[in-house]
Amino acid sequence: xxxxxxxxxxxxxxxxxxxxxxxxxxxxxxxxxxxxxxxxxxxxxxxxxxxxxxxxxxxxxxxxxxxxxxxxxxxxxxxxxxxxxxxxxxxxxxxxxxxxxxxxxxxxxxxxxxxxxxxxxxxxxxxxxxxxxxxxxxxxxxxxxxxxxxxxxxxxxxxxxxxxxxxxxxxxxxxxxxxxxxxxxxxxxxxxxxxxxxxxxxxxxxxxxx
Length: 210
Prior knowledge:
By secondary structure, the chain is α/β, with parallel strands linked by helices. It has 2 domains: about 5-155, Rossmann fold (3-Layer(aba) Sandwich); about 160-210, no CATH class. It has helices spanning about 15-35, 50-60, 100, 105-125, 135-145, 160-175, 180-210, and strands at about 5, 40, 70-75, 90-95, 130, 150. A 6-stranded parallel beta sheet has the order 2-1-3-4-5-6, sandwiched between helices. The relative contact order is 0.10.
C-alpha cells in the first residue's frame, strides 16, 4: 500500500509548533492506527527565521518526485507542488487561515504573515481538495481566498494523551511523582471501600442503639 505523505514546515514539537503540530501529529497517528502508512516530510535545513525556512523548504519540493497515494500539505506548505501534472492527488489541509490572522499583527510580523498568507492562498486554490478544521475557517477561505468547496474535518483529540498531560500537570502542582493515570486515581479508589465500611458501621451502631 502506498503511503500518505504529510508536508509541513511546522516545528515538530509542542513548544515551537503549538496546536498546529499537535493537530498534524494526532491526525497522522490516527491514520497509522488504522493501518495506513504515513510519512511526514519536514525541512532538512532550518534557519533562525521561520518564514525563510518555510520558503526554502517549499521551493526545494519543486524538484522532488512523489510516489504516494496522496500528498497532504499543511497550511501554506505544498504550494509549490499543488498544481503539478503526473503527481499524486494533493490535499491542502488548512488549520488556520493565515489571511485572517494578518489583521491582528503589525510591523515585520504582519509582513511575514502576509507573505505566507499569499502562499497559502495559492496552495488552497490549486489543490485537488481543501480540508479545514471549522466552519469559520471554511467561511474565511471562501471570503479571503475564493475557495468555495472546502470540507470541514474537525481536529482530532487524543483523549489518552490529554489525560496523561493533565495528570502530569496535577502531579507537578501538588508535588508528587508521575506514575500513571491509573496510579493517580488509585488512592481515591482504595478509600471508597473504607468510606463505605465506615458508613455501614455507623448505620449498624445506630440500629443497636435503637
